[in-house]
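Sorry to interrupt, but I need a hand with the structure work. I would like you to pick a protein and set down its sequence and fold. Please put the record directly below this note.
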Amino acid sequence: MQKGSGKKAGMRVWLDGKILKYDDAKVPILTHSLQYGSGIFEGIRSYETEGGAAVFRLRDHVDRFFRTAKIYSMEMQTGRSELEKAIAEVVRINGAPHTYIRPFAFYNDDNIGVSTEGKKVSVFVAAVPFGQYFKASKGIRCKVASWHRIKSDVLPIEAKASGNYLNSIIASTEAKASGFDEAIMTTSEGFVAEGAAENIFLVQNGRLVTPDKSSAILMGITRDTIMKLAEEIDLEIEERQIHREELYTSDEVFFSGTAAEITPIINIDGIKIGSGSEGRITKELSKIYQDAVHGRIKAHADWLTPIKFR
């Protein structure tokens, strides 16, 4: 396996109960999950707060991780509590408050064949220093992909599994090759689903509109956070199927996600969205979201798991 470089070279990670140097965490090149995309994962962030570093909505992410494992019948040897402690320890030992945390479960077996019967499931945790996901700070340009979002009759869309993301990769690659920042995917029926790795929101006449569960979306934890915060400022929210053309005529559009946080979309398929800049409601929700993840909203202190650096 390739050795770490730059900041990763000095990282410490967790693998099956042990803290290791990044370069010492090795698996065979024929590992089942590398061959067949059979791994499962989560994306979690830690932030700097007044009281120190804290992981945002750790329990919710870990719960989804284990739901994914159940959907794929992965026999986990690591328990929920152990994984939560491992995540906290990896953030602590690496000493960076702003990180993107990647728990990953995989079949640690190097035999040829798609069957997972009797194969060992290993769990890995890394925490990488992380800032802004999209570089276009004033808003991004998106393309509606020619590739449709997978549906539950193809693969379980509520599972955050490695193989599912080939669908995202091919759509995102197409968008970037066409000069855009990211893809927006639709269902095979033509309704708006989500970005390549983000949920999507529209603002129409002061109301938030977002694809519902029937629109082949991953039920994002950041999506859920935004909806809860929106309710607290009396913003009306509508979950429903969304026609593609509504993207172009909405007042504002933005992505949400652990990596993307809240990212304004200012152009779709070459069509300017609203004023062509970040809208008022997007900006307001982004501020409230940042207040929440940085511990400035006391009512949501339960969303944060403090990390004590020694």
